[in-house]
Design goal:
Length: about 140
């Protein structure tokens, strides 16, 4: 089973970007924790991708069909603006779980609306870096059924 983890704009700045909201963990440390957690699931492989560019994220999602069994995605700011990413998730017909480090429903009004979540099988928000682990667990269980 192969899972693609996609991170959107500014997530490459984790650890230094607004740590009071996003925590002190870096993206590379989160990826390391995901890899360690993945070891507890037999036959599960994970690949990571981060981009600050919407088109690159769309291209990566489109290239996932036939290569991956599912997607974990933190679209970051594109959550609230990107019909293109939402459409790409639908187009590849792979189960996807949307992740957010912060609780988007307790933040500014514009962050409460996710354009991308309806294209996903679920959304996890507000649990910091542990949201990735929860999303991975839920996606694996979904794929096993």
């Amino acid at each position: 089973m192969k899972i693609l983890v996609i991170n959107g704009p500014n997530l490459n700045l984790l650890g230094t970007r607004e740590p009071e909201i996003y925590g002190s963990a870096t993206l590379s440390s989160i990826e390391k924790e995901i890899l360690e957690y993945t070891e507890s699931f037999k036959g599960v492989e994970v690949e990571f991708f981060q981009s600050n560019h919407e088109g690159e994220i769309v291209d990566k999602i489109q290239s996932a069909k036939g290569l991956y069994d599912g997607i974990i995605i933190n679209p970051a700011a594109y959550t609230h603006t990107s019909v293109a990413i939402a459409d790409a998730i639908k187009a590849v017909n792979l189960p996807a779980v949307e992740i957010h480090l912060s609780n988007i429903n307790s933040r500014e009004d514009f962050r409460k609306k996710s354009i991308t979540a309806p294209s996903c099988i679920g959304q996890i928000s507000g649990f910091g870096k542990n949201g990735y682990l929860a999303g991975l667990f839920c996606l694996i269980k979904h794929l096993e059924n």
